[in-house]
Design brief:
The protein is an alpha+beta fold. Helices cover 59% and strands 14% of the residues. It binds zinc ion.
Protein backbone atom coordinates (compact mmCIF):
# COMPACT_ATOMS: atom_id res chain seq x y z
CA UNK A 1 0.00 0.00 0.00
CA UNK A 2 1.29 3.48 -0.82
CA UNK A 3 2.02 5.90 2.00
CA UNK A 4 -0.88 8.03 0.77
CA UNK A 5 -3.32 5.11 0.88
CA UNK A 6 -2.11 4.33 4.41
CA UNK A 7 -2.86 7.89 5.53
CA UNK A 8 -6.35 7.67 4.01
CA UNK A 9 -7.05 4.37 5.68
CA UNK A 10 -6.06 5.86 9.01
CA UNK A 11 -8.20 8.97 8.45
CA UNK A 12 -11.22 6.83 7.58
CA UNK A 13 -10.94 5.24 11.03
CA UNK A 14 -11.39 8.59 12.80
CA UNK A 15 -14.90 9.28 14.07
CA UNK A 16 -16.59 12.58 13.30
CA UNK A 17 -17.98 13.74 16.65
CA UNK A 18 -19.04 17.36 16.92
CA UNK A 19 -21.86 18.63 14.74
CA UNK A 20 -19.80 21.70 13.72
CA UNK A 21 -17.02 19.45 12.43
CA UNK A 22 -19.46 17.23 10.54
CA UNK A 23 -20.63 20.18 8.49
CA UNK A 24 -17.05 21.22 7.72
CA UNK A 25 -16.25 17.67 6.65
CA UNK A 26 -19.28 17.53 4.34
CA UNK A 27 -18.27 20.92 2.98
CA UNK A 28 -14.82 19.66 2.01
CA UNK A 29 -16.26 16.57 0.26
CA UNK A 30 -18.71 18.75 -1.61
CA UNK A 31 -15.86 20.96 -2.79
CA UNK A 32 -13.45 18.20 -3.69
CA UNK A 33 -15.41 15.29 -5.14
CA UNK A 34 -18.96 16.48 -5.81
CA UNK A 35 -20.33 17.81 -9.03
CA UNK A 36 -23.37 20.03 -9.24
CA UNK A 37 -25.59 18.71 -12.02
CA UNK A 38 -28.39 20.74 -13.53
CA UNK A 39 -31.66 18.87 -13.15
CA UNK A 40 -34.00 21.03 -15.24
CA UNK A 41 -35.90 24.12 -14.15
CA UNK A 42 -32.69 25.56 -12.83
CA UNK A 43 -32.60 22.93 -10.13
CA UNK A 44 -29.41 21.30 -9.04
CA UNK A 45 -28.45 17.79 -7.96
CA UNK A 46 -25.33 17.17 -5.95
CA UNK A 47 -23.47 13.99 -6.89
CA UNK A 48 -20.46 12.71 -4.95
CA UNK A 49 -18.13 10.40 -6.82
CA UNK A 50 -15.31 8.28 -5.43
CA UNK A 51 -13.60 4.98 -6.12
CA UNK A 52 -13.23 4.43 -2.40
CA UNK A 53 -16.27 2.51 -1.12
CA UNK A 54 -15.37 3.18 2.52
CA UNK A 55 -15.32 6.90 1.79
CA UNK A 56 -18.69 6.73 0.03
CA UNK A 57 -20.10 5.01 3.11
CA UNK A 58 -18.66 7.69 5.39
CA UNK A 59 -20.21 10.50 3.32
CA UNK A 60 -23.55 8.66 3.21
CA UNK A 61 -23.61 8.35 7.02
CA UNK A 62 -22.52 11.96 7.58
CA UNK A 63 -25.25 13.33 5.30
CA UNK A 64 -27.79 11.20 7.12
CA UNK A 65 -26.65 12.05 10.62
CA UNK A 66 -25.97 15.76 10.23
CA UNK A 67 -28.52 16.89 7.65
CA UNK A 68 -31.03 14.03 7.55
CA UNK A 69 -30.33 13.57 3.88
CA UNK A 70 -30.54 10.10 2.37
CA UNK A 71 -28.38 9.91 -0.72
CA UNK A 72 -28.86 7.26 -3.40
CA UNK A 73 -25.93 4.97 -4.05
CA UNK A 74 -25.14 3.75 -7.55
CA UNK A 75 -22.08 2.57 -9.42
CA UNK A 76 -20.43 3.54 -12.67
CA UNK A 77 -17.54 2.20 -14.68
CA UNK A 78 -15.44 4.66 -16.63
CA UNK A 79 -12.86 3.82 -19.24
CA UNK A 80 -10.74 6.67 -17.82
CA UNK A 81 -10.49 4.73 -14.55
CA UNK A 82 -9.28 1.73 -16.50
CA UNK A 83 -12.69 0.08 -16.04
CA UNK A 84 -12.55 0.45 -12.25
CA UNK A 85 -15.80 1.02 -10.42
CA UNK A 86 -16.73 4.41 -9.03
CA UNK A 87 -19.35 4.89 -6.31
CA UNK A 88 -21.89 7.64 -6.93
CA UNK A 89 -23.92 9.23 -4.14
CA UNK A 90 -26.75 11.29 -5.56
CA UNK A 91 -28.67 13.80 -3.47
CA UNK A 92 -32.15 14.63 -4.81
CA UNK A 93 -33.04 18.15 -5.91
CA UNK A 94 -34.85 19.25 -2.76
CA UNK A 95 -32.18 17.90 -0.42
CA UNK A 96 -29.44 19.33 -2.63
CA UNK A 97 -30.83 22.81 -2.04
CA UNK A 98 -30.96 22.21 1.71
CA UNK A 99 -27.40 20.84 1.55
CA UNK A 100 -25.95 23.74 -0.43
CA UNK A 101 -27.65 26.36 1.76
CA UNK A 102 -26.31 24.65 4.90
CA UNK A 103 -22.83 24.66 3.40
CA UNK A 104 -23.19 28.33 2.43
CA UNK A 105 -22.67 27.41 -1.20
CA UNK A 106 -25.93 29.05 -2.29
CA UNK A 107 -27.89 31.82 -0.65
CA UNK A 108 -31.06 31.24 1.29
CA UNK A 109 -33.37 33.17 -1.04
CA UNK A 110 -34.77 31.40 -4.11
CA UNK A 111 -32.84 31.81 -7.35
CA UNK A 112 -29.64 32.73 -5.55
CA UNK A 113 -26.42 32.08 -7.41
CA UNK A 114 -24.05 29.34 -6.54
CA UNK A 115 -21.14 30.94 -4.75
CA UNK A 116 -18.04 29.59 -3.16
CA UNK A 117 -18.68 29.59 0.53
CA UNK A 118 -17.81 27.36 3.43
CA UNK A 119 -19.47 26.97 6.81
CA UNK A 120 -18.06 29.80 8.93
CA UNK A 121 -16.69 27.37 11.51
CA UNK A 122 -14.49 25.67 8.88
CA UNK A 123 -12.39 28.82 8.95
CA UNK A 124 -12.67 29.91 12.55
CA UNK A 125 -12.53 26.74 14.65
CA UNK A 126 -9.47 24.56 14.88
CA UNK A 127 -11.58 21.40 15.25
CA UNK A 128 -13.44 22.26 12.05
CA UNK A 129 -10.32 23.19 10.10
CA UNK A 130 -8.95 19.82 11.07
CA UNK A 131 -12.15 18.08 9.86
CA UNK A 132 -12.11 20.09 6.62
CA UNK A 133 -8.50 19.19 5.80
CA UNK A 134 -9.07 15.54 6.68
CA UNK A 135 -11.95 15.38 4.23
CA UNK A 136 -10.12 17.36 1.56
CA UNK A 137 -7.29 14.84 1.80
CA UNK A 138 -9.63 11.84 1.72
CA UNK A 139 -11.38 13.30 -1.30
CA UNK A 140 -8.51 14.63 -3.37
CA UNK A 141 -5.29 14.43 -1.43
CA UNK A 142 -2.02 12.62 -1.96
CA UNK A 143 1.26 12.39 -0.17
CA UNK A 144 4.72 11.41 -1.35
CA UNK A 145 6.42 8.64 0.59
CA UNK A 146 8.69 10.60 2.95
CA UNK A 147 11.57 8.25 2.02
CA UNK A 148 11.54 9.98 -1.35
CA UNK A 149 10.68 13.55 -0.38
CA UNK A 150 8.32 15.72 1.59
CA UNK A 151 5.14 16.68 -0.23
CA UNK A 152 1.47 16.60 0.61
CA UNK A 153 -1.01 17.91 -1.92
CA UNK A 154 -4.68 18.52 -2.56
CA UNK A 155 -6.15 18.56 -6.05
CA UNK A 156 -8.45 21.56 -6.23
CA UNK A 157 -9.84 24.00 -8.77
CA UNK A 158 -9.09 27.58 -9.61
CA UNK A 159 -12.19 28.84 -7.80
CA UNK A 160 -11.82 26.66 -4.69
CA UNK A 161 -8.08 26.64 -4.10
CA UNK A 162 -8.12 29.85 -2.08
CA UNK A 163 -10.46 28.30 0.52
CA UNK A 164 -7.96 25.47 1.09
CA UNK A 165 -5.04 27.88 1.07
CA UNK A 166 -6.85 30.06 3.61
CA UNK A 167 -7.52 27.15 5.94
CA UNK A 168 -3.93 25.89 5.71
CA UNK A 169 -2.48 29.33 6.34
CA UNK A 170 -4.84 29.95 9.23
CA UNK A 171 -3.48 26.71 10.70
CA UNK A 172 0.08 28.02 10.40
CA UNK A 173 1.04 25.72 7.50
CA UNK A 174 2.73 27.33 4.52
CA UNK A 175 1.57 26.06 1.14
CA UNK A 176 2.02 26.73 -2.56
CA UNK A 177 -0.12 26.34 -5.66
CA UNK A 178 0.56 25.09 -9.15
CA UNK A 179 -1.60 24.11 -12.13
CA UNK A 180 -1.71 20.59 -13.52
CA UNK A 181 -4.02 19.27 -16.25
CA UNK A 182 -6.77 21.80 -15.65
CA UNK A 183 -6.66 21.49 -11.85
CA UNK A 184 -5.12 23.74 -9.30
CA UNK A 185 -2.86 21.88 -6.91
CA UNK A 186 -2.38 23.17 -3.38
CA UNK A 187 0.73 21.58 -1.89
CA UNK A 188 2.93 21.59 1.18
CA UNK A 189 6.61 20.81 0.73
CA UNK A 190 8.35 21.63 4.01
CA UNK A 191 8.89 18.58 6.21
CA UNK A 192 7.71 20.40 9.35
CA UNK A 193 4.53 21.58 7.62
CA UNK A 194 3.76 18.11 6.24
CA UNK A 195 4.08 16.78 9.78
CA UNK A 196 1.92 19.67 11.03
CA UNK A 197 -0.77 18.86 8.49
CA UNK A 198 -0.77 15.14 9.37
CA UNK A 199 -1.13 16.12 13.02
CA UNK A 200 -4.01 18.48 12.30
CA UNK A 201 -5.80 15.88 10.18
CA UNK A 202 -5.40 13.36 12.98
CA UNK A 203 -3.15 10.93 11.09
CA UNK A 204 -0.99 10.22 14.13
CA UNK A 205 0.27 6.83 13.00
CA UNK A 206 1.45 8.23 9.66
CA UNK A 207 3.01 11.12 11.54
CA UNK A 208 5.10 8.76 13.70
CA UNK A 209 6.15 6.81 10.64
CA UNK A 210 7.20 9.99 8.88
CA UNK A 211 9.15 11.25 11.89
CA UNK A 212 11.07 7.95 12.02
CA UNK A 213 11.90 8.22 8.35
CA UNK A 214 12.94 11.84 8.87
CA UNK A 215 15.32 10.97 11.68
CA UNK A 216 16.97 8.26 9.57
CA UNK A 217 17.13 10.51 6.53
CA UNK A 218 18.63 13.39 8.48
CA UNK A 219 21.35 11.23 10.03
CA UNK A 220 22.11 9.75 6.59
CA UNK A 221 22.36 13.29 5.23
CA UNK A 222 24.74 14.23 8.02
CA UNK A 223 26.95 11.24 7.21
CA UNK A 224 26.88 12.13 3.52
CA UNK A 225 27.77 15.72 4.28
CA UNK A 226 30.76 14.56 6.34
CA UNK A 227 31.93 12.36 3.44
CA UNK A 228 31.52 15.22 0.98
CA UNK A 229 33.51 17.43 3.30
CA UNK A 230 36.41 14.97 3.35
CA UNK A 231 36.18 14.77 -0.43
CA UNK A 232 36.33 18.57 -0.67
CA UNK A 233 39.45 18.71 1.51
CA UNK A 234 41.01 15.99 -0.59
CA UNK A 235 40.23 17.94 -3.76
CA UNK A 236 41.77 21.04 -2.25
CA UNK A 237 44.91 19.08 -1.32
CA UNK A 238 45.13 17.53 -4.79
CA UNK A 239 44.69 20.78 -6.59
CA UNK A 240 47.21 22.63 -4.39
CA UNK A 241 49.79 19.91 -5.05
CA UNK A 242 49.01 19.83 -8.73
CA UNK A 243 49.29 23.62 -8.93
CA UNK A 244 52.70 23.53 -7.22
CA UNK A 245 53.88 20.75 -9.53
CA UNK A 246 52.74 22.69 -12.59
CA UNK A 247 54.47 25.90 -11.45
CA UNK A 248 57.71 24.07 -10.64
CA UNK A 249 57.66 22.23 -13.97
CA UNK A 250 57.11 25.48 -15.88
CA UNK A 251 59.95 27.17 -13.98
CA UNK A 252 62.38 24.29 -14.46
CA UNK A 253 61.73 24.17 -18.21
CA UNK A 254 62.52 27.86 -18.46
CA UNK A 255 65.35 28.29 -15.95
CA UNK A 256 66.19 24.79 -14.65
CA UNK A 257 66.09 24.18 -10.92
CA UNK A 258 69.90 24.20 -10.68
CA UNK A 259 70.04 27.86 -9.66
CA UNK A 260 67.92 27.25 -6.55
CA UNK A 261 69.18 26.29 -3.06
CA UNK A 262 69.89 22.54 -2.88
CA UNK A 263 67.08 21.72 -0.38
CA UNK A 264 64.52 23.56 -2.49
CA UNK A 265 65.70 21.79 -5.64
CA UNK A 266 65.09 18.46 -3.97
CA UNK A 267 61.65 19.51 -2.73
CA UNK A 268 60.74 20.82 -6.20
CA UNK A 269 61.75 17.57 -7.90
CA UNK A 270 59.82 15.51 -5.37
CA UNK A 271 56.74 17.67 -5.91
CA UNK A 272 56.93 17.30 -9.71
CA UNK A 273 57.08 13.52 -9.29
CA UNK A 274 54.36 13.42 -6.62
CA UNK A 275 51.72 16.03 -7.30
CA UNK A 276 49.07 14.05 -5.38
CA UNK A 277 50.69 13.58 -1.96
CA UNK A 278 50.23 15.91 0.97
CA UNK A 279 52.97 18.36 1.95
CA UNK A 280 53.62 16.42 5.15
CA UNK A 281 54.19 13.23 3.16
CA UNK A 282 56.48 15.17 0.87
CA UNK A 283 58.46 16.38 3.89
CA UNK A 284 58.97 12.75 4.89
CA UNK A 285 60.45 11.92 1.48
CA UNK A 286 63.27 14.46 1.73
CA UNK A 287 66.80 13.09 2.25
CA UNK A 288 66.67 14.96 5.56
CA UNK A 289 63.01 14.51 6.46
CA UNK A 290 61.23 17.53 7.92
CA UNK A 291 57.85 17.84 9.65
CA UNK A 292 54.72 19.62 8.62
CA UNK A 293 55.75 23.17 9.51
CA UNK A 294 59.24 22.69 8.11
CA UNK A 295 58.04 21.50 4.74
CA UNK A 296 55.36 24.20 4.68
CA UNK A 297 58.03 26.84 5.17
CA UNK A 298 60.27 25.35 2.47
CA UNK A 299 57.41 25.07 -0.04
CA UNK A 300 56.41 28.68 0.58
CA UNK A 301 60.00 29.78 0.02
CA UNK A 302 60.23 27.74 -3.20
CA UNK A 303 56.94 29.07 -4.54
CA UNK A 304 57.97 32.65 -3.68
CA UNK A 305 61.24 32.31 -5.59
CA UNK A 306 59.45 30.82 -8.59
CA UNK A 307 56.66 33.37 -8.73
CA UNK A 308 59.03 36.33 -8.17
CA UNK A 309 60.96 35.11 -11.17
CA UNK A 310 57.77 34.75 -13.24
CA UNK A 311 56.54 38.19 -12.19
CA UNK A 312 59.85 39.82 -13.16
CA UNK A 313 59.72 38.11 -16.54
CA UNK A 314 56.22 39.29 -17.10
CA UNK A 315 57.34 42.79 -16.12
CA UNK A 316 60.07 42.70 -18.76
CA UNK A 317 57.64 41.75 -21.50
CA UNK A 318 55.59 44.91 -21.05
ZN1 LIG B 1 -15.72 21.70 14.82
Amino acid sequence: MSFSAGVKEELLRTQPEKTCCMLSEISAYTQSIASLRLAGGGRIKVVYETENAALAKRIFLLLKKRLEITATLSFARYPRLGGRRACLLTVNEQDSRHLLVSLRMIREEEGGDVFKGVPRAAMTRRCCRSAFLRAAFLGAGAMTNPEKGYRLEFVSSESRADILTGILEKSGLSCHTTDRRGSRIVYIKKGDDVVGCLALMGAHQALMEMENIRINRDSRNLANRATNCDQANLNKQLSAGAKQAAAITAYSLKHSLAGLPKDLQELGRLRMLNPDVSLTELGGMLSTPVGKSGVNHKMRKLMNLITEETDENEGEKE
